[in-house]
Amino acid sequence: MKKQQWIVVSSGLILLAMLFFFGKTVPPKKPEAVASAETAPAVKPIDFNQLLRHAKERLTPAQVEKVTGYENLVTRGDVKNQQLSSYRLLAAFWRDTVRLFEPYAFYTAEAAKLENSEKTLTFAAHLFLTNLKTEADPAMQNWLATNAKTLFERALEVNPANDSSKIGLGACYIFGNISSNPMEGIAPIREIVARDPENTFAQFILGLGGVKSGQFEKAIERFLIVVKKEPGNLEAALNLAEAYDQHGDKANAIKWYEFVKTKVPNPEARKELDNRIKTLK
Questions:
Q1: What are the Cα distances from residue 91, in Å, to 103, 119, 218, 272?
Q2: 38, CA 20 to 30 Å: which among 83, 91, 118, 206?
Q3: Which pLDDT value is given to residue 169?
Q4: Which residue ranges in the chain fall short of pLDDT 50?
């Protein structure tokens, strides 16, 4: 929960939810180079129950009582619908009342698995993926990616032809610290781009992969494709500015930082952008 990221994130409703409920407003750490299989550190998996215990320490006695009631909602009879209701109530509580991402995303995912519809599975998967793209902590990367991977795989069981889910699954490998060869996620995404060059989600993820591996020129090419097709895609514009910045092209970095600054409404985000621009001038 200490992770911070830019105000702009993608995926429509997820964008609005993340901004409104969790207030992501400042830039992430610079992307790190991809570790090799030999140098990649072992990651101790995160235990959600431990996360939940820490989260509950922030609650008032009245809130603890409410959460406990939601957790014990399942009794007899229609167990599936009772469990589904429990997960939805818990997700809404952690989102609306406490505004903690991890339990909100976890219970949203549990409800999606139980419902098993493509719509709910992909929505939950993109919640995790949105945070994964800017997460710097390896253990949290692993937790986010593992959850997203499961959801994307379940969504592909429902609809094997969904390219968006295939791309999301590939992104889990690229950014998620779940494989000794994280760039293996690139191959299926490249296959999609080969037959559908205008798939902006695929181009964007490949752009992020280029940044992660230090291939800034290739990343810039990808992001330019996205912003040309989607001028309002601020996440792509921001990453384009960052790629130019890291590539040493100050003029274009400033140009795109300025563009993003004119579009974001949050004063803190504009201040961060101003600071970045000043360092480049």
A1: 7, 17, 39, 31
A2: 206
A3: 97
A4: 1-21, 23-40
pLDDT of the residue at 42: 67
b/e 40-65 (16+ beta carbons within 10 angstroms → b): eeebeebeeeebbeebeeebeeeeee
The CA distance from 6 to 197, in Å, is: 27
Q: What is the token pair recorded at 88?
A: 């939805």
pLDDT in tens, 152-207: 999 999 999 999 999 999 999 999 988 888 778 899 999 999 999 999 999 999 99
- Fill in the amino acid letter for 69: G
Element (H or E) spanning 14, and its range? helix 13-22
Torsion over CA of 173, 174, 179 and 183, rounded to 10 degrees? 120
DSSP string, 109-159: HHHHHHH--HHHHHHHHHHHHHHHTT---HHHHHHHHHHHHHHHHHHHHH-
SS3 3: coil
Give CA–CA dist 237/255, Å, rounded: 10
Question: How many whole angstroms separate alpha carbon 231 and alpha carbon 16?
Answer: 18
User: What's this model's pTM, rounded to 2 decimal places?
Assistant: 0.82
